[in-house]
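Table 4 source record.
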Amino acid sequence: MAIPVVVDAPSGISAIAYFTTILEKNAPIFFLIVARIFGLTLQAPFFSAKSLPPQVRATLITSLAMMYMIVIRPEAKGIPDNMILYTVTMIQEILIGVAFGFCASIIVSAIQAAGEIMDVQMGMSMVMLFNPQTKSQSSAMGRLFYQIELTVFVFAHGHLYLLAAFFNTFEMVPIGKFNFSNPIVIGEYIQIVSKLFYVSLQLSLPILIVLFIVDFSLGITNKVSPQINVLELNFAMKPVTGMIILLILMSSLISMMGEYTSEKINDGVAIIKVMGKAVKIDDNRRKQNKYLNPPE
């Protein structure tokens, strides 16, 4: 029989005492919720920033876990009593959060990759900048596109939509149930990841086409007038041409970034829905096996 989470607070009790009471009665399920949210903060854009202090991250995870626990009222059904099995379940919950956050972070990686592709074609790939959010080196255009995408993500309330979508994962995939080896889950994940290259190419394609025309024109110029130093002309023309085209198309690119961000959050919901279907399929299969092979 399912055990509902106790959330009725007696009158006159303080918030800290109320939290302690809930934690004492529902500690196993609370830490599983914490594990899933922790997985989200490992991959999700904005929440996974390396510059975010650990104290702030821990406070955020604990606060969200407490809120989800009170609002959702999850059931403690199926949570193992054995410590080893409970640890395995906790790892599974972390992977669910990572899976959802990764789907949302794909768009950030794709947009940064689009900027780096532009840098290669513009001859600026050797200019590397340190990104404090990811603690890694990235090209100038890659860093610019990364910052623009994060700005669009926050100003479009993407972090709130992300949390709202993540809120629904507890209903789609109940706590303590997980299936990542199901073929439909793997197929959906491959389909989502494959869109990364499509997004990068679509964002960088206008500048790639213009720079190809510049290269073609310089090639013809070299054939017509060999005395012109095309190499030096190429170094001067391509960065300037690329920046001019980028300024012209910037508003359209930002609009596309917003659309792709919303799409990737929906992809995260889609992968969780598929995982929920896989859980139901496995449950039905177990019930059928139990019916066909009753215990003696």
